[in-house]
Amino acid sequence: MKNTEYAIVDIETTGGNASGSRITEIAIIIHDGKNVLDRYETLVNPEQDIPPSIFGLTGINNEMVVNAPIFDDISEKVLEMLTDRIFVAHNVNFDYSFVHHQLEQAGFKWSAKKLCTVRAARKIKPGLGSYSLGNLCNSLNISLENRHRAGGDADATALLFSLLLEWDDAGEIEKMIKKTAQDQRLPPNLPPDDFNNLPDKPGVYYFYNQAKKVIYVGKAINLKKRVSSHFTGNNINPQRQHFLRDIHGISFEVCATELMALLLECTEIKKLWPTYNRALKRFEAKFGIYQYEARNGYKYLAIGKVSKFQVCIHEFSSLYEGINLLRSLAERFEIDHRFCKYSKSEEGDFFQNNNPQSLPDVLMHNAQVDNAIDYLLNNRPSFAIIDKGKSKEERSCIWIENGHFYGMGYLPSDISIHEPSDVKNYVTPYKSNQYIEQLIFSYAEKHPRKVFFKKHLLA
């Protein structure tokens, strides 16, 4: 790598993300691969308070930076030192995101090739217990002074970088610097093999934190492409920065179709409730239809909010959907609408204002309510969705029983399917919910040729 120069950078900041925090100190060391050519270090007035927790870590407080230059005042010097040089840092995306953001705010458009010494160390010195800067310095006998200050950490990173260049017999650093090097964009704590093992197939992927706990579940049409999209771009949103730093591992499960991946994603999120999954958590059913018997012996049907302390007959994502179904049942089974509660606002006992002689026979009425519930529970559609498998030797199958997702799995291509039981024998049972059922019914409506054994339908 002739004529290649590196800008080894370390910064201290007021917080963990570039969008809401600012640089309080910066050190830049210019290196030609053998020797240090230049060095720059300064405190920076962040124009915001330094939190006590940051002072406890770095020792930098508000008094120390009050007379320091603001970043705008040093931006030209920083840009000059970084231009046409490879940006090197320990956990490079953190430092790069701050410097890029503050240069942009100062009016400069700048970008650079990046090199992460965490990743380089993992490749060149695999098998170490920890790749934090402090632990690496201990393991490799690198002198580390003035810890958690920009100058001290930059000096240590420069010494580490020199050793990595010396030990790099396989040319790993040169590969990493190439613009196409995928693992330069990976989170710093993620082993590259976890990403490299991802296939170009549909499925579900799992992100794990340091404690091996699942923190995110996602589905993909193409696993490698979808996971890669999490790591591209220069998004400085604090949630994304925390998310990326928390990823220490990836696993995956290949699915035959996008629908199966979507169903597995939903069930896994429901089961694992990962920290960073927010979107699908909003699709939890909010309303349900309930049946109760009053002291006068009459049975009621009511729409109410879903509660973990009450078992409902059927769930809905919206009050509107529940009201429509209850009205449909009341009309189909000729249930007196006075015994249907459509909202919480309907308070009081209508018997006080109604002539008991105008009420239906209690036994006949209760039988009509029972018939409506039985119809709702037992006369919804049962069917299979049969589609391509993960290979030519199999087919995928999804089974719906009485309107509820029963399970999914794979069956051999060379067997004949004549009865629903032939499908059910090959599926793994999963828990159902209203959102999953909505996905399956929508798919079945769009792809009727993939639907088999369909019977019964609630109008």
UniProtKB/TrEMBL annotation:
GIY-YIG domain: residues covered: 200-278
Record's keyword annotation contains Hydrolase: yes
Coiled-coil regions listed in the entry: none
Gene3D superfamilies for this protein: GIY-YIG endonuclease (3.40.1440.10), Ribonuclease H-like superfamily/Ribonuclease H (3.30.420.10)
UniProt keyword list: Exonuclease, Hydrolase, Nuclease
Molecular-function annotations in GO: exonuclease activity
Source domain of life: Bacteria
SMART domains named in the record: EXOIII (SM00479), GIYc (SM00465)
InterPro entries listed in its UniProt record: DnaQ, GIY-YIG_endonuc, GIY-YIG_endonuc_sf, GIY-YIG_UvrC_Cho, Ribonucl_H, RNaseH-like_sf, RNaseH_sf
Name of the protein in question: Exonuclease domain-containing protein
Origin species: Flavobacterium quisquiliarum
